[in-house]
Amino acid sequence: MPFIPFPRDARRRCGLLAVACSLMFVETSSAQTTPPRDSVARSVSADSLSARLARAEADIALLRQQVATESSTSVRLRSRLRLDLHARLLTNAFLTTADANNPEVPIFAKAPGGVSAEYGASGGRVLGLSIRQTTIGGSVSVDSVLGATFSSDVELDFFAGQTTDGPPLFPPPRLRTVRGFLRWERTELMIGADTPLMSDLDPVGVAAIGIPDFSAAGNLWNWLPQVRLTRDVGVLRAGHHAVHWAVQGALINPFSGDRHVDEVDGVDAGLRSARPSVEARLRAQWGREHDPTSSQRIGDRGGEIGLSAHRGWLRVSGDSLTVSRAVGADVRIGLSYGLELRGEAYQGRLLRGLGGGGIGQNFAPSSRGETLGDPLTDTAGWLQLNAQLRPTLMVGSGCGTDRVHNGQPSRQRNSACATHLEWRPSLPLLFGAEFRSIATRGPTGRYATRHFNLFFGIEL
Q1: Nearest-CA neighbor of 351 among 252, 274, 211, 440?
Q2: pLDDT (tens digit per residue) in 388-428
Q3: Residues 460, 454: Cα–Cα separation, whole Å
Q4: Can you spell out the DSSP letters for 295-334?
Q5: Is the omega angle on the peptide bond into residue 292 within 30 degrees of 0, that is, cis?
């Protein structure tokens, strides 16, 4: 029999009629008999799907509300750039067991206080609470500025105003770093205040924000105004790995920490030289670029090695200039299993102005009647191993030391070891602890102190 095709409309009507008859038959049957088990399952599945859809719609509505709130509360500058703010509201509880230069964040130990017949012994243990290591900062960025990408950031804390009576009850703010960057394809220009180029790495530790760990024990950290230029010079490839080489140079504010002998309340001796300090560094970098402002994540298996040099001048007596110099090396290597190794080492002289060099000393006491003794030369370094055990838990431990080679200064050798733990159970909460042991040797003996620090913070 020849095939006679039905018109499309006729086929559609027949299909609809068949579906209607089927539905009528199911309805009639369900009224007389118990529904099959698979029909009940399909009904429950439909109800579950409907509930999930309702929850998804509610989540989307909440997300829209949060985005609208964030958009309405964002901070914008007059130049219409968005300003991203961040803060760490930190409370520290500390116990220092013996005399130190600063019981809140000690960097070297001191001789015990004297004993008098009338008042007894002075000095000793110190216990306290502090909020001075709270930090607040912000950053902006924009493309296409002089053919480069521009970014800038600023950070301050409340560690200013140290007095002989201890930390102030109403701590004033202190500007830490202010940096502006112009980044082209192979060149970077930075203008602002930052750590010295030859010591551009700090140990990880939330209990040492006001004064970084291992200061006066190998870590040079002063935030100094400077102009820094970085130029990529090439890439060395080994299989799937690439090492990026760069040269860096900086002109730095010539701060020394000492004054001209004839100007007791006068200008710093480094500024009196009328010459900026000069630093240079050769850098090898691989893996993901390191963010020096963040300590929450480590061990990305990237790394960086640097070799550096410093030269500066001081005018401390008459019109003659005294040279400050140093050579150094730094390393940061991300290892397997969330481990990271970081450290620095240097040798030089007259480095107090860079932040703790010479255990905070430039000159030895005079033994021949002069106002100042010989310029101090020291060798120092520190090393720290950190482990990201979980995304919310990090631990680390390290040691540093600084040894002065010549003269008879009041501090001839200073060693410090610190162990820290940071726990972020749920944003924005931060808990942690640090234990620090410090030993300082002087002409009259060896002094030691221990420091315990428990901290609680809110990271915004």
Answers
A1: 252
A2: 999 999 999 999 999 999 888 999 999 999 999 999 999 89
A3: 20
A4: -S----S-EEEEEEEEEEEE--STT--EEEEEEEEEEEEE
A5: no
